[in-house]
Amino acid sequence: MRTTTLQATIPQRDPVGWCIVLTLGFLAMCCQRLSIPSEIYFDEVHYVNAARSLLELKRANPEHPMLGKEIIAAAIRLLGDAPLHWRIPSALFGALGLFAFGRLMWLASGRRFATIAAMLLLATNFMWFIQSRIAMLDMFMAGFAMAALWQFAAAIRASAPGRARLHLAFCGLCLGLALGSKWSVAPAAILPGLAFLVLRLRDHGRAFAWRCGTRPVPGISLIEAAFWLGALPLAVYWATYAPGFFLRDHPIHPLGFIEHHRYMLQLQDSVVKLHPYRSVWYQWVVDWRAIWYLYQPVDGAQRGIVLIGNPVTMILGLGALVWCGWAAWRRKRPDALAFVVLYLACLGLWIVTSKPIQFYYHYLLPGAFLMGCLALAADALWEKGGKWRWPPVALIVAAYGVFVYFYPIISAAPLHHGRTSFEQWMWLRSWR
């Protein structure tokens, strides 16, 4: 019965082939000029140097979790200490995250066009591409986060409890690894367990803890789900600090985890010096404030990398967010509800947080889920057929056209008009 129901809810053909092709194309695009600039730039100064210190068993950059720096350190140890090797892990995790995002969209919606459109929109929203080409922590966090959400959606779609259990285990593993990369993922990390709890409460009331015959994953009790989605991620997160137990100076005590996290929070809250590229959440939402990662003569040419969002998709995505909210309420669309909640939860963290200095790259996850909303809205027009199909096609063409136009200034390409080259891309004064 369950298999028949799933076949009824996913009548379209799985575009997994397209997902693979788009992922490989994105990875190839990321690898172009990946070694340029041939020196540390922007926040690489924190994380590459921290990775080098880890290789010497010295503590560095203790205000952030350790896994991302451990991955960069592993690349340096295996491949050598060079710019290409610092950045290869981010490119790989950017590709992994893009593929996982496509699988998440497919399993959540069962819509072929929405899945392909979502991957195309995320690949060209500027942020995902730029963060996949720099040795920072964000893409490790985002890649593991998308993989975790993909696995949770796969558990919901699984045809047997044993298979669902395996997906939940992978989900918990990836949640722990995402948290071990950067705390920004915390709102998204708690949502799978929270969704499981809410649905069981609605279906079973007081008997929610041990009943296991209904949604979201039949055959898995809430108690078992709490292990896979709660205890396991915390255990994995704790394990990501294991190299810190063996540092030569100021090692982390395995049983002093709470105290160490107080110290980490204290360090993060102590950064109060104003930064010229600081911004706040409502500026991110309207694509108002840019960050210049690079703009200088380097490697024989004037080059630049500016972090902004694709102005076409970031702005149209806000309208799609409203549509998804309406579709979730009036049409009872769980896929639309999921992406709206993911967007609002990840953005909400930065609305309520006490972190005094914030930057546009904190919008990486909300911006990705916004692309999911935009893909679902475009798919709703595509499904109408006929003349309604040209707007979603025009959207994707416009997104790619703007991406190609901005490509030189987001990819460190040679700029041929010297120091004033950047002006042709400055549509807003606030991007300067």
Describe this structure in words.
The structure is a single chain. This protein is mainly alpha-helical. The protein has a domain of 100 residues. Helices cover 62% and strands 3% of the residues. It has 17 helices and two strands. The chain has a two-stranded antiparallel sheet with strand order 1-2. Strand 1 and strand 2 form a beta hairpin. Helix 4 packs across helix 5, helix 5 runs antiparallel to helix 6 and helix 6 runs antiparallel to helix 16. The longest helix has 27 residues. It is globular and about 65 Å long. The N and C termini lie far apart (59 Å).
Question: Quick summary of this structure?
Answer:
The protein is mainly alpha-helical and 432 residues long. It has 17 helices and 2 strands. The protein has a domain at 141-240.
